[in-house]
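Hi L.,

You mentioned the student needs an example of a multi-chain input paired with its predicted structure. This one should do, with 708 residues in total across all chains.
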Amino acid sequence: MPAEQNLNIVPFVSVENMMDLVLATGAETFLRELATYVEEDFRRWELFDKVARIASHSRDGVIELMPASDGQLYAFKYVNGHPKNTRSGRQTVTAFGVLSDVDSGYPLLLSEMTILTALRTAATSAIAAKYLAPKGAKTMALIGNGAQSEFQALAFKALLGIDNLRLYDLDPSATERCRNNLAGLGLTITACRSAEEAVEGAHIITTATADKRNATILTDNMIGPGVHINAVGGDSPGKTELHRDILLRSSIFVEYPPQTRVEGEIQQLPADYPVTEFWQVVTGQKTGRDSDGQITLFDSVGFATEDFSALRYIYDRLRGSNRFENLDLVADPDEPRDLFGMLLRRAAQPATSK
Amino acid sequence: MPAEQNLNIVPFVSVENMMDLVLATGAETFLRELATYVEEDFRRWELFDKVARIASHSRDGVIELMPASDGQLYAFKYVNGHPKNTRSGRQTVTAFGVLSDVDSGYPLLLSEMTILTALRTAATSAIAAKYLAPKGAKTMALIGNGAQSEFQALAFKALLGIDNLRLYDLDPSATERCRNNLAGLGLTITACRSAEEAVEGAHIITTATADKRNATILTDNMIGPGVHINAVGGDSPGKTELHRDILLRSSIFVEYPPQTRVEGEIQQLPADYPVTEFWQVVTGQKTGRDSDGQITLFDSVGFATEDFSALRYIYDRLRGSNRFENLDLVADPDEPRDLFGMLLRRAAQPATSK
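Structure written out for the whole complex:
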């Protein structure tokens, strides 16, 4: 938490400062620390003011707002999803977010969240797997080797000790890049020529593809007993990755049912199909994995509390740090009800150098 | 619109730059120009993707997100409302907002909106009065002389030619400040000792009080035939300003009924009580004022399209201007799917001076 300062100033964590914070911390340590915040907020789930994200859909993508509050802090994230963006050199997903003080409504922090979202998504996946994956899991298939893939790999290494990765992507150059980026980080990596090959011997199967349409990345015959499926890519209406038959054989765990029913893999199932809310596994109210042969599925779409946790973590990390800039974001007149007078006094000042 | 620049950079209009933009333009010119944008977007109403604002209520206030899109641009505003904030030297209402490109989902502009909201609220009030107030109105009662009051006064002067103001506030020092701030701006101002006195001879009555509770600023006997009531302060559940009997005698015009039914003066009326959507008056589909004796009421709560209009205006005004800073807000890897690689390349760079 930055030292007390003028009421008009809001700390801003730029992309560059976020990168430096991650690098100074070490990506795996960052993921482990971030995961403790995410897990803590799953445990405090019932405290939160929760709402399914507010989506504005257009032909090529979606822009979403994701607010959440625990009654003391409020956070929201702005995030887009535009699969065609890569053609124009842009990111499919970019994001930024704000953390605020509920008592005053004043913003405490503005942060880039493109990188932070990749980290929180991976941290959340790994926490879910900690509760749901088979004991002693060492091998993960990672299908879809785009922007999210290395973060998933490192989170599963950091939190579960996964050291064997089997990569597959429709685009071999994506697999190659993922492998190169992860070189020297302590993972044994196999590049596979098909999804079928990738899942061979895997205890955990992570799907993180980006096409905005219903696709079948995994078919029923590819899923043996006892695996944990971490389905990350299916996260909006009309965008799924798994064949419906896999869902019917799995115990399904979700973040926030009202959102997941619309956006997750379970949009393929009836609206009353039984699923378990993951937070209840964290609190011990529900069982996670209950047998060796059980197929567990974390149908992850990304929920606002996870972004809340991530911003809360960053805010705590800024204490004693200089990895932020000061933004003159909130009007702060000498007398709070005298907004117009602030304008008049500005007019009376000599022009600044700008 | 700023010149083309790096994909990671988002222009940011600080409080200081917003003040300088308003001062360089002149507040009345700014209000007139802004009003053309607001009016144009009321005319294009049916194009918009609209939603009632998403509110997170707490004991002392509310934090709201207000998104809107016309299919090409997307905007949202973050705004709080905390009446007790003035006790700690803070603003009751602060705000900031973002304008984005729908096709890519990328932000185009981040702007302070505390000042801008005050201006857009006043501009919207004046546009409504242009359609609804009695012809030749010259005198306005302004009840509630807080942060919004001078902006209302100037907007009604700039757009309707109001030159006679009758002020009243429970707190005489607020009235005094308002009068001082408006001195020399071409308005004849009378400070009144009661709301009853303020409304004497007024053609337009503007209420802009800030208490977060149902109050009765205006009672039925105070409202003569033919006046236009511009009710600005009643804008959240449990916060109203007018006695119900006034509503029953008035023709009521609203912004977006699903939001106004919950937040506006009409929360005192049955959910199916007939009201007119103001945009239909702008397009000519519905009649505004239809007789000299009619009492018209603009039950204004502030709608997301007005913030969209304000951000669109600011974005256009930035063309050829240097009244913004550049924020490194969006991660922009050389290769769009290689977010992790961007981190690795950052690690390989020498440390910056920060």
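You could point out the following to them. Chain A is about 35% helix and 20% strand. Chain A has two domains: 9-115+306-336, 132-302.

Best wishes,
N.
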